[in-house]
Design a protein that fits this description.
The complex is a heterodimer of chains A (about 325) and B (about 475). Chain A is mainly α and about 325 residues long. In chain A, about 75% of the residues lie in helices and about 0% in strands. The longest helix of chain A is centred in the first third of the chain and has 37 residues. The radius of gyration of chain A is 20 Å and the shape is globular. In chain A, about 45% of the residues are buried. By secondary structure, chain B is of the alpha+beta class. Chain B folds into 2 domains: about 375 residues, no CATH class; about 60 residues, Dna Ligase, domain 1, CATH 3.30.1490. Chain B has a 5-stranded mixed β-sheet. Chain B has a 4-stranded antiparallel β-sheet with strand order 5-4-19-20.
Chain lengths: ~325, ~475
Amino acid sequence: MRGMLARAAENVYWLGRYLERAGNVARILHVTEQLSVELRGLAPGLARSLWLDLPKIYPGAIVIIDPNASTEDIAKQHLRSFLLATDNELSIAASLRSARENARVVRENLTRESFEQLNQTFHHIQDLTNKPLDTSMALCDAIKKIQVEIFGVCGAVDRTFARNEGWSFLNLGTMIERAFRTLMLLQVKLPTLMNEPEAIELPIYYAHLRSMLRSVASWENYRHIFGLDLDALQVLRFLLFDRYTPSSIKACVHALQLNLNSLNDGEIMTAPSRMLGKLSAKLMYEEQEIMAEEHLDHTCRDLSTSLMEVHDSVSRLYFSV
Amino acid sequence: MEWTHARLGFDEAFDADGQVRHAYRDLIATLEKLPTEELRRREQLQRVSLINQGITFTVYGQEEGVERIFPFDFVPRIVTAQEWQHVERGLIQRVTALNLFLTDIYGDQKCLRDNVVPYDLIFRCGEYCRPLVGTRPRHDIFTHIVGTDLLRDEVGNFTVLEDNCRCPSGVSYVVENRNLLSRVFPEFFEDHAVRPVDPYPQLLREALTHAAPRGRQDPVVAILTPGLHNSAYFEHSFLAREMGVALVEGRDLIVEDDQVFMRTTRGKQRVDVIYRRIDDDFIDPVVFDRKSVLGVPGLVHAYQLGNVTLANAPGAGVADNKAIYPYVPDIVRYYLDEDIILPQVKTWVGNRPQEADYIRQNMANLVVKLTDGAGGYGMLVGPAATKQEIAHFAEIFNARPEHYIAQPLIEFSQHPTHINDAFEPRRVDLRPFILYGDTIKVLPGGLTRVAMEEGSYVVNSSQGGGSKDTWILAEQPS
């Protein structure tokens, strides 16, 4: 069986990561703005801290803010930076630019429809840099539109990409990025969430949990199972161990295993397969122990580290031939 | 609708009396029915389509963000079946002769002994690769892909301006221009039997597979590109996608035991045929430019041993060197015992002292070109140059006249082109693509490049030129 060009596999992998990242950022910006507006009157400090959490969820993000600015201005600065800033490598514009660069390099592996959708989205976000977008509402509208377009790109890719090696690498990139971002979100939000509900007002506590679930597109999925029963530990357990919600760690690890298996033809146990096997077993058999741990944020950090090791191992095995 | 006819040169759509030529009647009638607003709308549609599809090229020497769309004019250029038959015969003759010439100069060198082409011309030619003397490519084919630039002279005869035997580019625009035109102006095609151009990738793959090293079943073909920042990268990826082959860079290839492998996710995989879109100079740092990071060390040796096919073969550039061009009619006569079918432009060679004098004295009336130049760079268009420019160029010429040729300025043909809501004549050339596989095949189409500026003779994309769809009409059953 002929293999895929190693460099092309790496580009497809990163295409998956950048597309996922762009979609994630768009979603979290939108959710943060909604919650921040909701809380501005009730809990101004919390409303402000929601924005200041963003660079922690996206380490390496550069957001220049005026510390004396109002919460609304802080919001605008973050929205603009994470939407358009070229010096913020984690902005949607930067992710789409990188996704497109990777797609251009492996264009022969993509269908015309996929490339066109991505290219069109890239040009739209470039056009936005020339528009005033001087209010949070204008920025949010633009983000919403771009988010819909990113869905269009992912849809085109999903419907047309051949289910070959390239598809597996694309999914590996997507899933690692998704799992990593869920874990970063948990790490940053856990200290607030693990406070007793009494420590903050109950409606705020619920709004916080709801928005966290929405940040990883899991709110409706959660409700289907638990109805209106919102509890921090339950949300945490859901985002770590639910097998069916696409952003949960267990679901991501499962998808990673499937894609790695298809690359190996199920025959050889490679280094990243072994790593994922261990991770999967931990999530399968140690749920109670993990949930009983005192420092769950440390657990999330360890899981992130494991995922980064999987990334390194995939890179060594497949991209550095 | 306003149509301006060409005052100089041959007008492709209108005859000397201003009457619409037969081949253009239906097209112009269709265009006349489309209101200005509608033409504008569709022009905008085609521009957006080109941007969204990323059909771009890169211009060198500019800052980042150098991707540009290749301006496309929607008025197609029409070549009748009869005209094309003549062009096709001429191109097949030319490519046949040039390959015999290349086989000879890298083999017995009979043509040199018989004084068909001067020894010194060959040995001074930068594209002549001495280490490859004695190497015979598979089936003696050096030029698997050729793009020959044609002009129509004052009376409409197709005339060869130059051959491109190294890495001719532009064929992706031939195919994409057709796709675009059929989407944006479907009504154009209703009354015309236009020969398709989309089989090109299939024909190219067949030609490359035919050239595979002896004994290789189901050969692996790859396209070698300098990378994303090359001006023709879109074309490289287009061809890889359409042929279903890998698009590799030098760093993806490795030579071991004189065989070429690409680095894949399943380890090293042997490559049999490389359609290289990198010039000789950069293809192998062992043989050519030592500083090249684009090439693959050991590649040329693997080629010499017949373990890999390089298309086009290294050293093939001699055949399109501008100093060789004046000798092509003699080359055709020598190898094929035929007169050349497609005429050439009268050329003075700086290598001959008498002709160099002529060039010096008539620079203001001539087009002077570097023998190894391309892309419209390093040339002087005398009639369009200022006195200072001519004086400056004369100094450069005098320093090494043997590196220049000169030709009269050809009043090449003009074609109606949509400019600012009117149809104005603009100069056009034509680059057909010729593939050499089991037989020589000419794609029924070609890249028509158009000088978008009024009065301009420069059609190069790097200097503001655009392109048109080129229609070769099918022969109508009588």
